[in-house]
């Protein structure tokens, strides 16, 4: 059996991370570099990193997968509206493939790529895994039997724009009271401004624990919204694992505990919820692991076989 390799690349707003994955799904090489804005630079940097991680194995690379934020069409490889990287639109798959001498390139939404990578690294035995990305926004990635569930129009898991409270905040999407307006990094920063560059969630949790009534009020809103997010994925696809990821997951165990408390409190009021044992399904995304890049590589393998 000849070894086959796949390259996975996770393009973020501040850094690009790439891995070389072998035929057994094991990460052999990992490299990262600072991200640069502009479609031409993103194409060039993806191609450069792919060659860098592949090194002498480049001729054996079967496919390259790229995870990137914005509006991504995995079937065409077209990417649009990546605000952080100043991309209006770009034929990302075609251009990176061209720069790599024709290697097939597959592009995924970054949350979906992270979902696939987290499912692979945490527990390959689970049939269904839901990945909740509490990042600047909120979205879920759904993995079924090791494959991504995109849905008919690619919007499966876009729970951030489900309105949960019409009396609350307007959402840039045009609706009112979307879950994302109370349950995302940006929402917590608005509800609990720390006035510093520090992420607000650890401060909010610490102040609430110390008895600050304002912090407790805000935390109750955020916890309720996180509980809604968890219930939405649980009651839609009944996953074995619910992975908490995204920037807010850097808060670590205290965040997972807060979500666990919320779902357990709901369970005490509702025997049906209690019977689902939701808190036991919660996991933190593996910190410091290149889950986005690994997932991008796995997604590319699935379409190239
Ligand atoms: Zn919305």
What layout of secondary structure does this protein have?
Blueprint: E1 5-11, E2 15-21, E3 27-34, H1 39-54, E4 61-68, E5 71-73, E6 78-82, E7 87-91, H2 92-99, E8 105-109, H3 110-122, E9 128-134, E10 138-144, E11 147-148, H4 185-191, H5 200-209, H6 213-237, E12 241-245, H7 253-269, H8 271-276, E13 282-284, H9 291-304
Zinc ion binds next to loops.
Low-confidence stretches: none
Provide the succession of SSEs: EEEHEEEEHEHEEEHHHEHHEH
- Give the bound compounds: zinc ion
Beta-strand percentage range: 15-25%
Count of runs of 4 or more consecutive helical residues: 9
**N-end to C-end Cα span:** 16 Å
The secondary structure category is alpha/beta
Query: How many structural domains does the protein architecture include?
Result: 2
User: What helical percentage do the residues reach?
Assistant: 25-40%
Strand order of the largest sheet: 3-2-1-4-8
* The CATH architecture of the largest domain: 2-Layer Sandwich
Please give the largest β-sheet: 5 strands, mixed
Assembly annotation: single chain
* CATH homologous superfamily assignment of the largest domain: ATPase, nucleotide binding domain
Radius of gyration, in angstroms, nearest whole number: 20 Å
Mean pLDDT figure: 94
Give the C-level CATH assignment of the largest domain.
Answer: Alpha Beta
Question: What coarse outline follows from CA principal-axis ratios?
Answer: globular
């Amino acid at each position: 059996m000849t070894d086959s390799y796949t390259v996975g690349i996770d393009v973020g707003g501040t850094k690009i991370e790439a891995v070389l994955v072998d035929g057994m799904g094991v990460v052999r090489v990992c490299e990262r570099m600072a991200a640069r804005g502009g479609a031409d630079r993103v194409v060039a940097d993806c191609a450069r990193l792919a060659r860098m991680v592949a090194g002498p194995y480049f001729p054996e690379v079967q496919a390259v997968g790229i995870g990137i934020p914005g509006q991504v069409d995995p079937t065409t490889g077209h990417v649009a509206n990546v605000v952080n990287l100043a991309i209006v639109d770009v034929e990302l798959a075609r251009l990176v493939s061209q720069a790599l001498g024709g290697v097939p390139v597959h592009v995924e939404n970054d949350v979906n790529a992270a979902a696939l990578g987290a499912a692979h690294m945490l527990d390959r035995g689970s049939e269904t895994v839901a990945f909740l990305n509490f990042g600047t926004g909120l979205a879920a990635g759904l993995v079924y039997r090791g494959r991504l569930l995109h849905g008919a129009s690619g919007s499966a898991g876009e729970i951030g724009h489900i309105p949960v409270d019409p009396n609350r905040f307007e959402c840039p999407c045009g609706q009112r009271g979307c879950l994302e307006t109370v349950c995302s990094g940006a929402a917590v920063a608005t509800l609990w401004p720390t006035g510093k560059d520090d992420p607000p969630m650890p401060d909010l949790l610490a102040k609430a624990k110390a008895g600050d009534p304002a912090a407790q009020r805000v935390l109750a809103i955020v916890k309720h919204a996180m509980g809604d997010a968890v219930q939405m994925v649980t009651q839609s696809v009944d996953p074995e694992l619910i992975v908490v990821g995204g920037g807010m997951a850097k808060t670590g165990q205290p965040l997972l505990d807060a979500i666990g408390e919320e779902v357990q409190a709901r369970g005490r009021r509702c025997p049906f919820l209690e019977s689902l044992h939701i808190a036991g399904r919660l996991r933190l995304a593996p910190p410091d692991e290149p889950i986005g890049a690994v997932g991008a590589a796995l997604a590319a393998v699935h379409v190239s076989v």
